[in-house]
Amino acid sequence: MEGGETIDVVVRRRDDRAGGTIAVLELARRDGAPLPDWAAGAHLDLTIAGDLIRPYSLCGIPGETGSYRLGILNDPASRGGSQAVHATFTEGLETQISAPRNHFPLDNSAKHSVLVGGGIGITPMLAMAHALKAAGQAFEVHYCVRTRESAAFLDELAATFPNETHLHCDDGAPDQRFDPDGVLKAAGPDAHLYVCGPGGFMDWVIDRAKSAGLDKDRIHFEYFNAQIDTHGTAFEVVAAQSGVTVTVGPDETILDALGKAGIKIPKSCQQGVCGTCLCDLLEGEPDHKDKFLTDEEREDNDQIITCCSRAKSPRLVLDI
Ligand code: FES
Prior knowledge:
- The chain is α/β, with parallel strands linked by helices.
- The protein has 3 domains: 91 residues, Translation factors (Elongation Factor Tu (Ef-tu), domain 3, Beta Barrel), CATH 2.40.30; 112 residues, 3-Layer(aba) Sandwich (Rossmann fold); 84 residues, Ubiquitin-like (UB roll) (Roll), CATH 3.10.20.30.
- The chain is built from 7 helices and 18 strands.
- The strands form 5 sheets. Strands 9-8-7-10-11 form a 5-stranded parallel sheet, sandwiched between helices.
- It is globular and about 60 Å long.
- It binds FE2/S2 (inorganic) cluster (FES).
- FE2/S2 (inorganic) cluster binds next to loops.
């Protein structure tokens, strides 16, 4: 992890599911010593090769520190990270991870939680379901997939949470398709919604939840990829602590321009979704392009995601 602490781990187990499209990995320290504690909704940064690092949600039982469990889709549309995992991560392989970080925590005050996972976006919901069950809190899980065969985690969900699990297949009968309006109406205005999955799917669910009148504080989401246009006009960035000023060119990111000047900011997804490259902003007006900051955080204008966001003012001053 560039700029961050790493933990050496070994792939203790690999289980390929859904016709080999999803690899479920179990990562542990070689000596079996405990890993850092974590809570539902957490993700970690996985070193795949060299500086190829990607964030993945933990999908085991929260608080389990003997090993971490990840579910990784072999996504042909990805930028190569998941394909490399599928091609090279065999049992016994050694690699590094970051400690878990959690930008997608459960709200423990929720009377009822609606967990919605689109495809591989079910992974954080698995951990959330375990946490809610252990806490004795009411919840329902909606697992939205293209086909029944691609529902790699259905068997364990149905076995562990038989009364809470609902499967929705795109190729199934119309009456079993996911209906956000109906689900949220039945859940009531006090429910909290958690959603993760492909960007278009998430945008649709979040939009329906807002239209249904669900308070924005009750809508929780985590994007795992985004199509963001990071290009624009050039601007200047001052790294205040280092006393370095760089020009960010039209085709560059702040992260890259500072990196060339020797200022390394921790990074992972490089798609504006994981928050690893967040920096405090001291001066200037950012042009937020990420999918990580909340609307309120954007309005505060005191933080910026440096792998994709740009500037509306000619100059930004970062606290780095
Ligand atoms: S590296 Fe993930 S948001 Fe920038």
